[in-house]
Design a protein that fits this description.
Number of strands: 7
Keywords: Lyase
CATH topology of the largest domain: 2-methylcitrate dehydratase PrpD
Number of helices: 20
EC number: 4.2.1.79
CATH superfamily of the largest domain: 2-methylcitrate dehydratase PrpD
Order of helices and strands: EHHHEHHHHHHHEHEHHHHHEHEEHHH
Structural class: alpha+beta
Domain MmgE/PrpD N-terminal: 20-262
Helix content: 40-55%
Catalytic activity: (2S,3S)-2-methylcitrate = 2-methyl-cis-aconitate + H2O
Strand order of the largest sheet: 5-4-6-7
Subunit structure: Monomer.
CATH class of the largest domain: Mainly Alpha
């Protein structure tokens, strides 16, 4: 890996475009290096994972709205929309499928200086591949790039500290991945990366206060913008430049300012793209920093039972955790909505106080039942929920930011104080499903997750057909086989939505 130091440059400076970060990203995308077997295997896992969560979300309102918007744009030379037959305009298929993937907060993640869900690259790159008739090997190459670029931007450049949403790293990564997929030249990819970043930079208000369905739409929008950016630059159009380093660019005005330097690691020429191997998926439908805490709560429920103690005997619960967990999904966010039983599902899946309380009561987590309004409104749950608080612990913050895989952790230490003063203390660094956790996800677990979430939504025969296609991805010639048709009776349950403009 090469560490690239990036900072603002004055317009009057001699700053050749070959030194721009966007150009260096494009060079990585255009590198014809082969994809290693381990990366290919994980790409297959993540395509399965995205299909699983899309099956679970197919009748939810935001997904239904996105799908119906996309259906207004059929195209013979197009891409597939999850759940239905036919082909549609690539950018709108990206919009529909990206929303389906993101809606339940249930697919893969990478956390470092910034947050990310790199599986959000898949809808855009796959739609571009289907539209252009590319094969499985082409798709693998494109996805390896998408993951590589997003992971390395996340390693080196924090957006959330400046209240910029993490999808600002997704637009450039998806554009780069499409560039690899299509075999575009460096200059075209460079322009596409710049356009994609320029059009996908937004504030983090989408994840603050009362969180709305835009949280699901945001990465779909970034993917859609990436597809459109590539289309424009292939037609000869350019982008603002230098997009990151410019005097009025992203670093100068949206991030840490003209005096700050960022270090972005990128593969050297000829170096394999292995970034996806550092990412991890979710066993539970909740923000990733809640994954280990759900597993910890399940374990502590057993501890309570062993001591013949009920949750009614609890006086307080304090979760000692990282800066990120405390301020994003903990009481450090100072969001009263995170303590409100009438809040949206999107808000509750970003409330570790709610999540820990329900997991402690139930000893399990379910992507629908655990968020049901009647579940959130139980008086005993609300009482317990409001006894939970978080505090930042410097050691957990250090481990969160560590670059050493053996130290990096996203967990917490829980201190449950009973009404008689007794303290029950336990901690968990990594979710059970993490690659270094108690029950790491491998192909078997990805398939199991898909089978469980597709049960009753996709016929068994269609499930089998899809799994055979994706597991044979390297030799797949028709990428529309990666789409799944949902049972008619399931789609009939999708909510009625008002007519829109399109």
């Amino acid at each position: 890996m090469i560490d690239h130091v990036v900072h603002t440059r004055r317009s009057a400076e001699d700053f050749p475009y070959e030194e721009h970060l966007a150009y260096k990203v494009a060079r990585v995308a255009a590198d014809p290096v082969e994809v290693p077997e381990e990366t290919t295997e994980m790409i297959i896992n993540r395509i399965i994972d995205n299909a699983a969560v899309s099956a679970a979300s197919v009748t939810r309102r935001p997904v239904t709205v996105a799908r119906r918007q996309a259906q207004a744009h059929p195209s013979e030379r197009g891409a597939a929309i999850f759940g239905i037959p036919g082909t549609y305009s690539a950018e709108w298929a990206t919009w529909a499928n990206g929303t389906a993937v993101r809606e339940l907060d249930f697919h893969d993640t990478f956390l470092a200086e910034e947050y990310s869900h790199p599986g959000d690259n898949i809808p855009a790159i796959l739609a571009a591949a289907q539209t252009t008739g590319k094969n499985g090997r082409d798709l693998i190459r494109g996805l390896a790039t998408g993951y590589e670029i997003q992971v390395n931007l996340v390693r080196g450049m924090s957006l959330h500290r400046h209240k910029i949403d993490h999808v600002a790293h997704l637009g450039p990564s998806a554009a780069a991945g499409i560039g690899t997929l299509l075999g575009l030249d460096v200059d075209t990819i460079y322009q596409a990366v710049g356009q994609a970043l320029h059009t996908t930079t937004a504030t983090r208000q989408s994840r603050k206060g009362q969180i709305s369905s835009w949280k699901a739409f945001a990465p779909a929008f970034a993917g859609k913008m990436a597809v459109e950016a590539v289309d424009r630059t292939m037609r000869g159009e350019g982008a603002p430049a230098p997009i990151w380093e410019g005097e009025d660019g992203v670093i100068a005005w949206l991030l840490a300012g003209p005096e700050h330097e960022y270090t972005i690691p990128l593969p050297a020429e000829g170096e394999e793209k292995r970034g996806i191997l550092d990412t991890f998926t979710k066993e539970h439908s909740a923000e990733y920093q809640a994954q280990a805490l759900i597993d910890l709560a399940r374990r502590m429920k057993a501890t309570l039972a062993d001591k013949d103690v009920s949750t009614a005997d609890i006086d307080s619960i304090v979760l000692h955790t990282s800066h990120h967990t405390h301020y994003v999904i903990g009481t450090g966010a100072n969001d009263p909505q995170k303590m409100d039983p009438t809040s949206s599902r999107e808000t509750l899946d970003h409330s570790i106080m709610y999540i820990f309380a329900v997991a402690l009561e139930d000893g399990k987590w379910h992507h629908v039942d655990s968020y049901a309004p009647e579940r959130a409104g139980r008086p005993e749950t609300v009482e317990l929920w409001h006894k939970v608080s978080t505090v930042e612990d410097e050691e957990w913050t250090r481990r969160y930011l560590s670059t050493d895989p053996a130290e990096k952790a996203f967990g917490a230490r829980a201190v449950i104080t009973l009404k008689d003063g007794t303290e029950l203390v336990d901690e968990l660094a990594l979710a059970d499903a993490h690659p270094l956790g108690a029950r790491p996800f491998a192909r078997e677990q990805y398939i199991q997750k898909f089978r469980e979430l597709a049960d009753g939504v996709v016929s068994p025969e269609e499930q089998d057909r899809f799994l055979a296609a994706v597991e044979g991805l390297e030799n797949l010639t028709d990428l529309t086989e990666l789409n799944i048709t949902v049972l008619d009776e399931v789609l009939a349950e999708a909510p009625d939505t008002p007519e829109g403009l399109l």
